[in-house]
Amino acid sequence: MDGKRAVARRAAELVLAEGPEVLGVGSGTTVRLFVEELARLGYEGLTVSTSFDTNIVLKKHKFKVLDIQTVEQVDLSVDGADEVFSLKDGIYAIKGGGAAMLREKVLAAISRKRVYIVDESKVSDEPCARGTPIPLEVVPSALPAVEKGLNALGVRWKLREARGKLGPVVTDNGNLVVDLDCRSAVEKVEEVERLPGVAVSGLFGPGLIDVVLIGERGKLP
User: Fold this and answer.
1) How far apart are CA 170 and CA 145, in angstroms?
2) Distance in angstroms (rounded) separating the CA atoms of residues 38 and 92
3) What is the mean pLDDT of the chain?
């Protein structure tokens, strides 16, 4: 069993053991496998999703999906990550490869317990070792101002271009995505998030992470 399928199964088993009435479901390829395993094991609770893509997958497997705007609290949420590493104050994750980081951060904020699922390749011994960019979700009209602010902070960046269509990536919220070079940005994320027009960054800190499941056996912390 490959690492993604193994950790997806472990997460589904955890959900069945804890029995949340409302389950938050994030985005990404590993999360898709998690939904398949959840359906196989017969989870019957309600779900809340972070993206149109995940909504489609959940409904395909006959889960009842609530609109995240109607939910104040989620018992447990399961999401993926693009890179996981530790800093002196705890575990961090970079998310947003699928451009859903705003709703993913909202879901994490309203969840009683936050579980992230990754295979071993996503875990780094030091920050930014995989070269994964830290994405920003940016209001379109504020893009020039945000670019100016990033340049002033000395953060390298690139507007994310879409595949399959011309032009930039547009999020489910109608915003743009700017990818930041991790090494030049990781210590400046709080300043970056204060720039007018930045909705959210894809860096998730210890306050939004409870458990990281890794592959077949691993776990952080």
Assistant:
1) 18
2) 26
3) 96
Backbone angles phi, psi at 135, to 5 degrees: -80, 150
For residue 164, what pLDDT is reported? 87
SS3 (DSSP) at 169: coil
- Report d(CA 181, CA 133) in Å as an integer: 5
State the virtual CA torsion across 77, 136, 119, 108 in degrees, nearest 10: -10
Strand pairing of 114-118 and 176-180?
unpaired
Rounded distance between C-alpha atoms, residue 142 and residue 9, angstroms: 42
**Rg over CA atoms, the chain:** 17
Tokens describing residue 197: 């027009």
| Six token digits for residue 64 | 């009842």
For the beta carbon of residue 71, count every other beta carbon within 10 angstroms. 16
Contact by Cβ (8 Å): 90, 168: no
Residue 11 one-letter amino acid: A
* Catalytic machinery residues: 104
The answer, yes or no, to whether the previous bond of 221 is cis (omega within 30 of 0) is: yes
Which residue segments constitute the domains of the chain, with CATH numbers given?
3-123+204-220 (3.40.50.1360), 134-201 (3.30.70.260)
Q: Looking at residues 176-191, what average pLDDT do you find?
A: 97
Q: What is the pLDDT of residues 143-154, one digit of tens each?
A: 999 999 999 999
